[in-house]
From TrEMBL:
Residues 240-544 form the Penicillin-binding protein transpeptidase domain. This is Penicillin-binding protein 2. It comes from Micromonospora parastrephiae. It comes from the Bacteria. It is found in: Membrane. The keyword rRNA-binding does not apply. The keyword Heme does not apply. Belongs to the transpeptidase family. Residues 42-185 form the Penicillin-binding protein dimerisation domain. Pfam families: PBP_dimer, Transpeptidase. Keywords: Membrane.
Length: 568
């Protein structure tokens, strides 16, 4: 009898188990298991940013994140007070984060970030507290080894590893990858303890890709150092310097003043975080004259041997334009006009060229549109359409006024002259590196012919007069042992189209002039004046370092020609 009863009981239990598994499983799964599941975010490792040599400019290191399950916390105020000194977050903010809240589906939230990028020793201290409802998991923290090195280009991320400025923001989707998550069934009372054999599903994180830039950290460091030293005594000043590799259009250095420490962006002035080369809109002044002379050469308006009688002043509309080196009506050569930056000579030549053709060449040289170098928020500048020209515009535009441009746009224009007349889009990204290590070159830069090689070479030779003729405007930019072609400029800073106090002084040059390898542009806005004393010498130091760094031999084709300013 006893045996029969026992067998009957086992049969009933067996039937019930089958019933539970075959019939009631969905109901049970929809109830109890859901209440016991925990979700842990698995942040995707963010890709690094390298310079052209493979040196790390920004990368992620292992850290921890601290999170809370508000349903498990027994003493919110006490927990916040205990965590505050370890996380460096006010207890009031932690209290707010740990408050119970409902998700969109009506269920209580069981996962809230308290802090990201926590250093491992601090995270271990958090774990040692054994606070109910508080957990720690693997995370990443962004590091910028160089501090302010290329900071205006690289930008920075938020604590949640979202790109906020610079290349970190522009390429955020590529760098950030895709986060994963782990969902598992846990027992009561221990947030981090999965039930052996319980429900568990992991979606792995997909790491982000990395960027290799065209920037070279050594010239970048030296360029920033030179710019900073030159600007040390200037108040409220802004400056930019750009180094372009002529054949490729690769930007080797792009420096701004002021700058900031990308490791501590919260401590910086937003103005100091701007990239001056792409956001600093100027009225370029006389560095624009190279574009006017380029157009005139290409259109046959002048030749390298052209001479013109040059008055001391010329009137356009209601405005007089004068020269700082009066010719007193004598004939002046084109190299002489460049050496002494003759406004009258440039305007006289532009009259023969005409507004339409000059505007066409401004566009060919890349003015009036962003270069699309790679940084977000790049300014486009503005060209004055021919139908908006007044009579005085016929004087101001050819000499670089009534023109809005950025330092990078002007540097790229000179790089076209250096590159035998072919414009190459300046760019910052050399390649991307996938999580699997596969390297993908960046799309090729936009190129277009602007001048014939012969006319580009002729203009380069004439621009050497600026650094060699007695009394020329660019003597301080000459580099011993190398032939240098370039141009000085004095313009204005524009904010919302309005002229600001003070001047923008500049020098853009190329070397070796006989076969240019590099173009360097230096722009200095000094509200109190004195920028001209900075731009030329800064160019000389930067170019001298760059040529030596890349082991470019001194000019072997002899010295620059002996220019005659006032032919008889």
């Amino acid at each position: 009898m006893g045996t029969a009863l026992t067998l009957a009981l086992f049969a009933v239990i067996g039937v019930r188990l089958v019933f539970l598994q075959a019939v009631d499983t969905p109901a049970y799964a929809g109830g109890g298991v859901a209440d016991r599941t925990r979700t842990v975010e698995l942040p995707a490792p963010r890709g690094a940013i390298y310079d052209r040599t493979g040196a790390e400019l920004a990368h992620s290191v292992e850290a921890r994140y601290v999170f809370a399950d508000p349903t498990e916390i027994k003493d919110v105020a006490g927990t916040a007070k205990a965590l505050s000194p370890l996380l460096g977050i006010p207890a009031s903010k932690l209290t707010e984060l740990m408050k119970p809240r409902k998700l969109e589906n009506g269920n209580p939230s069981r996962f809230e970030y308290l802090a990201r990028g926590v250093e491992i020793p601090a995270a271990k201290q958090v774990l040692a507290l054994e606070l109910p409802g508080i957990g720690v998991h693997r995370d990443e923290r962004r590091e910028v080894p160089g501090g302010d090195l290329a900071a205006n280009l690289i930008g920075f991320t938020s604590q949640d590893m979202d790109g906020l400025e610079g290349l970190e923001a522009r390429y955020d989707d590529l760098l950030s990858g895709q986060d994963g998550r782990r969902v598992y069934e846990a027992g009561l009372g221990d947030l981090a303890a999965p039930i052996p054999g319980g429900y568990s599903k992991t979606t792995p994180a997909k790491p982000g890709s990395s960027l290799t830039l065209t920037i070279d950290r050594d010239p970048q460091f030296k360029t920033q150092q030179i710019l900073s030293a030159g600007m040390a005594q200037q108040r409220g000043a802004t400056a930019a310097a750009v180094i372009i590799d002529v054949p490729t259009g690769e930007v080797l250095a792009q420096a701004s003043h002021p700058t900031y420490d990308a490791r501590k962006p919260a401590d910086s002035d937003p103005v100091a975080r701007e990239d001056a080369a792409t956001s600093f809109v100027v009225d370029p002044g006389s560095v624009h004259k190279a574009i006017t002379y380029s157009a005139a050469l290409q259109e046959g308006v002048i030749t390298p041997d052209t001479t013109l009688p040059i008055a001391n002043s010329i009137k356009k509309g209601d405005t007089w334009f004068s020269d700082t080196h009066p010719a007193n009506g004598r004939k002046m050569s084109v190299p002489g006009m460049l050496a002494y930056s003759s406004n009258v000579g440039t305007i006289t030549i532009a009259d023969r060229l005409g507004p339409d053709r000059l505007i066409d060449y401004q566009k060919r040289f890349g003015l009036g549109q962003p270069t699309r170098e790679g940084l977000p928020g790049e300014a486009s500048g503005r060209l004055l359409p021919a139908d908006e020209w007044s009579e005085s515009s016929r004087g101001s535009v050819p000499i670089g006024h009534s023109v809005d441009a950025t330092p990078l746009q002007m540097a790229a224009a000179y790089a076209a002259i250096a590159n035998d007349g072919t414009y190459v889009q300046p760019h910052l990204v050399k390649e991307t590196i996938g999580p699997d290590g596969k390297r993908t070159p960046a799309p090729p830069p936009v190129t277009r012919p602007v001048l014939s090689p012969q006319n580009a070479a002729a203009l380069r030779t004439m621009l050497e007069a600026v650094t060699t003729v007695d009394g020329a405007t660019g003597l301080t930019a000459a580099v011993p042992g190398y032939r240098v072609a370039g141009k000085t400029g004095t313009g204005w800073r524009l904010v919302d189209g309005k002229k600001q106090p003070g001047e923008v002084s500049s020098f853009i040059g190329m070397a070796p002039a006989e076969k240019p390898r590099y173009v360097i542009a230096v722009f200095v806005y000094a509200p109190d004046g004195g920028g001209a004393a900075i731009a030329g010498p800064a160019f000389r130091e930067m170019m001298q370092f760059t040529l030596r760094h890349y082991r470019v031999p001194p000019s072997s084709g002899g010295s620059a020609p002996k220019f005659v300013v006032y032919p008889r």
